Amino acid sequence: MRKISIYYSLVIGLLLCAVTLSAAPRLTIVAVVDGLSTESLNTLRPYWQKGGLRTLNEEAYQTSIAFPHLVYGGNETTATLVTGATPDRHGYTMDAYLQRRGRNVRTMLTDESVRGIGTSLHLSAQDLLTPTMTDRMRLQYPEAKIYAIGIQPQATVLLAGHAANACCWIDPETKQWVATGAYKEGLPSAAYEQNKNGRVNDMASHLWTPRMAIQTYNYPTAQEKKKSFSYDVSKVLTHSPEANTLVIELALAIQQSEKLGMDATPDMLMLHLNSLSPAAKSDRIASAEHEDMYLWLNQDLGYLMEQLDRRIGHTNYQILVVGRPVLGTDSHQLEEIHMPVQRFNVDRAAALTGTYLMALYGHERWIDGAYGQSIYLNRSLIEQKRLNLETIQRQVANFLMDFEGVQIAMPSHEAVRYPLLGTSLCKRHTGDVVFMLQPNWQLMQDDNNTIDFVIDEKPVVPLLLWSGTLRPMPQEALDATHVADLIFQ
């Protein structure tokens, strides 16, 4: 009889263990960090005595992920992370695109049908064609409470997806939390309270100086060794440590006011953070101020985890931290290894292409414009003149192939033959002729000598997933389209 009792006790124990292992965490935090790099984390690890990055490095599942599409330094990477799809499917190819009607550059996620709250921006996730992490959470748990808080508007709206309760970000001009009316709760009450109390403005009044003696940093520049560094935070707010602190503070305030993670229904916090300093020229740390950003980020993430341990319990949440490539490799670093970076001006290329078509077909405006790696033909004129669109696409592609720096050019419908390019384009926003540049060529949009797009092929970023409950993690290599599945496995 006693053996039977022990047997049933073991069975019940195993069943309870299985339930514990398979139960979804009460609260999921996803933090996308601009510029976070594996190399920087590995280099700085020995210098963190404590903090969130130290804890994650010691206890979290860690891997590096690559993006299976071209990366331009915009939020096309954020869209891929949250949807598990590539740009040809989720529809977010760049932060902006050329709108044929009116021939003007339009910011992605712009939605004039929704109001801005405290901001002139009108944003929603309508341009996203596939479900996001938050959409999956809402479908699986209709009563879930889901909030997105961030530094930059487009990134934060992408993190919110279609189904968040609310989404808000920092306005560096007004020094307030602002939001979009695309979500049912508008500006969260906790953000309203911080605005009323002037919290963002208080943080912006700080002076950012090194938290340690300058000689103790690993990467001080020659200028920093002489004069250290100092910033008026109000002028660099969104690229200062204070911005990350504000996001973490509001996340914890919302967690407390909305009781996230305090009942059986799983909830979600989506955070947009930054590791890049104002003077950063690449995602790789090359200055004391850039290193200082990591030190503060480590502290902020540590505070977040400590507070969640105390409020909802160590085993009741999970946190995923993933990098987002922004600046790529510094051109000066490439030049040091004798790989000079060349620049390709897409507007100038479009103007020359227009002149070429005039020579062939007459003095008309044959080009509507250019943006990114696309040339947009004047389709209305081509149709009016009863010309063959595909013939002109082919002529323009052949013409572009003669430009220095162009590796390949083709009519846009042929891009599917080239996997890397095909997965990077969306039919809704792509021009009639597309091209790829040769390695070490950077894209300029106009003559102001500014690099507008940092084109990178398959950049690698770190991913760290800490969970208070034990569960199996994948052993195989992952790419950015697998990140969303990690949350729901």
Structure description:
With 489 residues, the protein is an alpha/beta fold. It has 18 helices and 23 strands. Strand 19 and strand 20 form a beta hairpin. Helix 11 (241-257) packs parallel to helix 12. 48% of the residues are buried.
Number of helices: 18
How many strands appear in the DSSP assignment? Answer: 23
Q: How do the strands line up in the largest sheet? A: 6-9-8-7-12-1-13-22-2-23
CATH architecture label name of the largest domain: 3-Layer(aba) Sandwich
Kindly name the structural category: alpha/beta
Kindly state the mean pLDDT as a whole number?
89
Distance between the termini: 40 Å
Number of domains: 2
CATH class division of the largest domain: Alpha Beta
Observed structural traits:
489 residues, ten-stranded mixed beta sheet, alpha/beta, 18 helices, single chain, 21% strand, four-stranded antiparallel beta sheet, Alkaline Phosphatase, subunit A, Gyrase A, domain 2
Short description:
It contains 18 helices and 23 strands. A 10-stranded mixed β-sheet has the order 6-9-8-7-12-1-13-22-2-23, sandwiched between helices. Strands 15-16-18-17 form a 4-stranded antiparallel β-sheet, covered by helices on one side.
